[in-house]
Amino acid sequence: MRGAGADRSTSQSLDRGLVLMELIGQRPDGISVTELAAATGTHRTIVTRLLKTLARRDYVVRDQFGQYRLGGRLLELARFVQPQVRAAALPILRVLAERIGATAHLTMADGDEAVALIVVEPTTAPYHVSYRAGTRRPLGRGASGTAILSARPVEEVELPSVAAARARGWALSEGELEKGAIGIAAPLPHPQYANYSTGVVMLTAPESPDEVGRAVIEAAAAIAARVV
């Protein structure tokens, strides 16, 4: 298992448990004990014992088919991550979600992944995209991650979508993460929160992507203005 036993000053059991949660987080449809044991190179008995400990504290849950998923305790802890930007973003995201009639989000870059910190669903739209805070996606896929990359210095080799997002001020994705879903996002114009983006995810293409793009840029600017 990654990192296990590499440094005697650290806890091997804790490291193993954290690695298990990372692997479970990458499988929203669930993952079995056997798969986790194979992925980590750890005996099934050890993996089972670690999962029971995590499940007792609701960090993971086991469904009727024996598959493990992340538990609600992680969502509770997520409230305490970056509380300032969360507090600034939440009311603005609520307004954005209702204005566009689509699911709004605040997303943060974590290494080469984009992590959804806040997800706000519209209350009036008959249909909308639904996903959990804490969901991770590759940074180079989807509007939220592309928007974050577009705020970084130009690289010699970069994705065309990143260059396009930088040119117009907002990123667009079509079906990159979910079939049929349209994403529009913009980076937060704030030096301390340059690795953040906000945006919306829609089930159908908007009549005017530019209009939605402007709304998302306004929301990003409003969040940045509220953060000291």
UniProtKB/TrEMBL annotation:
One of its GO terms (biological process) is negative regulation of DNA-templated transcription. PROSITE patterns: HTH_ICLR, ICLR_ED. Residues 11-72 form the HTH iclR-type domain. PANTHER family: HELIX-TURN-HELIX TRANSCRIPTIONAL REGULATOR, ICLR FAMILY, HTH-TYPE TRANSCRIPTIONAL REPRESSOR ALLR. This is Transcriptional regulator. It holds the Pfam family IclR_C. Residues 73-228 form the IclR-ED domain. One of its GO terms (molecular function) is DNA binding. The keyword Calcium does not apply. InterPro entries: GAF-like_dom_sf (IPR029016), HTH_CRP (IPR012318), HTH_MetabolicPath_Reg (IPR050707), Tscrpt_reg_IclR_C (IPR014757), Tscrpt_reg_IclR_N (IPR005471), WH-like_DNA-bd_sf (IPR036388), WH_DNA-bd_sf (IPR036390). It comes from the Bacteria. Keywords: DNA-binding, Transcription, Transcription regulation.
